[in-house]
Design goal:
Elements lengths: L1 H11 L3 H13 L5 H18 L9 H17 L5 H13 L2 H4 L4 H21 L4 H29 L6 H30 L4 H13 L3 H14 L4 H13 L3 H15 L2 H14 L2 H14 L5 H17 L3 H13 L29 H13 L3 H14 L4 H13 L11
Helix pairs in contact: 1-2, 1-3, 2-3, 3-4, 4-5, 5-7, 7-8, 8-9, 8-10, 9-10, 10-11, 11-12, 12-13, 12-14, 13-14, 14-15, 15-16, 16-17, 16-18, 17-18, 18-19, 19-20
Length: 421
């Protein structure tokens, strides 16, 4: 089947137009197993739709509609083709999301999740012994719970003139509105584990549900099981370390991050461990980990790179490596903030250009740190200039203003007045 092989080759190279053309040719020939060609052509349409995101465009709705048409045809030809649902479900989610439609419509999102659940109900009824089908349906229950909870939260926020504590209101909405679906998701994850005790995705998915329900202890236990059965998945270590960080058990978070590094060496784990070391005040170790993050980090993400340079600069500052810190901060300041192309519009409205000061990835804290480093090196004029820039970017925040004001006083300089907005 040369058309199929050619289509897969193009697909693997992310040449989706060529892949679609190859699968078109295979379908036109009326070859056997045409459901496979419809499936792969649908997958290519889906992938093509999301390529626009890199160009600051919304996912292409027409491509998503073509993908759904192909997935439906594949299922018409072969109703017992469960892998199609792995693609049909996220396509339904995406085409009904704000990311594509441009407006928040919880009812539409909920309806999309219900259609996905109905699809999985049918295929599970036909093939009740496939653990991964329960995992996927559980994700749909979790997705519906998320949308239902956000709809309830939106209604609560609109009905109250004053909301005391967003977190408490969110908990109220999530537990009251999303609770039933969360329990259905747990039921499906339980069934998946009964069918396949080492299904790491079931443990990880159930952990996320327990976390949403505030059961941190059970979430930690499930992430440990997910790691046990798939020690090569770096995100499991990240999620578990995040739970320890939230609970301020930084040492345990470092231990989990280190175990993940030993198994995967993923830069995100170095990033997590560096952050934990920073919280522990172990700046030398943090700087070493940021070295590795910067060495491995993706080259096409300047925002992420700038963040890591600034974090390393902070570590350098705390160990007295002021010149190294200034070198990293200079990189941050020179890094331009990603901007859409000239013809980019949001709902037919062209974004206003950013003022020059805000076109850099530098933040107010970047210039505050620069000022502190210059002060430590005895470069008074440069320190004062950096502090002025910090306040120019953020003069209305009281706590930040107080930090900068203290630096001015230590330099014997009168600080600018605070903007009381």
């Amino acid at each position: 089947m040369p058309q199929y092989d050619k289509g897969i080759e193009h697909y693997n190279k992310r040449e989706y137009n060529e892949a679609i053309a190859a699968f078109d040719a295979a379908i036109a020939l009326g070859l056997p197993h045409s459901e496979v060609y419809y499936f792969w052509r649908g997958a290519a349409h889906y992938q093509k739709s999301t390529q626009t995101v890199k160009d600051w465009r919304r996912p292409n709705k027409e491509e998503l509609e073509l993908a759904l048409t192909d997935f439906d045809e594949a299922l018409r030809l072969r109703p017992d083709y469960p892998q199609v649902y792995l693609w049909k479900a996220p396509t339904h989610r995406l085409i009904n999301s704000k990311q594509v439609t441009g407006v928040e419509n919880y009812d539409r999102e909920i309806a999309a999740q219900e259609k996905i659940i109905a699809d999985y109900d049918r295929v599970i009824n036909d093939q009740p012994d496939l653990a991964w089908l329960y995992v996927e349906r559980a994700k749909a229950f979790g997705g519906r719970a998320f949308s239902v909870s956000h709809k309830a939260l939106d209604q609560i926020m609109r009905s109250r003139q004053r909301v005391e504590g967003f977190r408490g209101v969110w908990e109220e909405a999530r537990r009251a509105a999303g609770g039933p679906d969360y329990q259905l998701a747990i039921r499906d994850y339980d069934q998946a584990i009964r069918l396949q005790f080492d299904h790491h995705q079931a443990y990880a998915g159930r952990a996320s549900i327990y976390l949403d329900l505030g059961n941190t202890e059970q979430a930690i236990a499930d992430y440990k099981q997910a790691i046990k059965y798939n020690p090569g998945e770096y995100m499991y270590y990240i999620n578990l370390a995040t739970l320890y960080r939230t609970g301020k058990d930084y040492a345990e978070g470092v231990a989990i991050s280190t175990a993940g590094i030993e198994h995967t060496s993923h830069f995100s784990l170095y990033n997590m461990r560096a952050h934990l070391y920073t919280l522990m005040g172990e700046y030398e170790n943090a700087a070493l980990d940021y070295d590795e993050v910067i060495r491995q980090q993706p080259k096409d993400n300047p925002s992420f790179a700038a963040y890591n340079y600034e974090e390393r600069a902070n570590a350098y500052y705390h160990v007295g490596r002021y010149e190294d810190a200034l070198s990293d901060l200079d990189i941050v300041i020179k890094t331009k903030r990603p901007r859409p192309p000239d013809d980019f519009e949001i709902d037919s409205v062209k974004p206003s250009p950013l003022p020059e000061l805000y076109r850099s990835m530098a933040r107010p804290n970047t210039y505050l740190l620069q000022g502190r480093c210059c002060k430590a090196l005895g470069e008074r004029k440069k320190a004062i200039a950096a502090l002025h820039t910090a306040l120019e970017m953020n003069r209305h925040d009281r706590s930040f203003y107080e930090e900068v004001r203290q630096e001015f006083e230590e330099l014997g300089e009168e600080p600018p007045s605070r903007d009381p907005r």
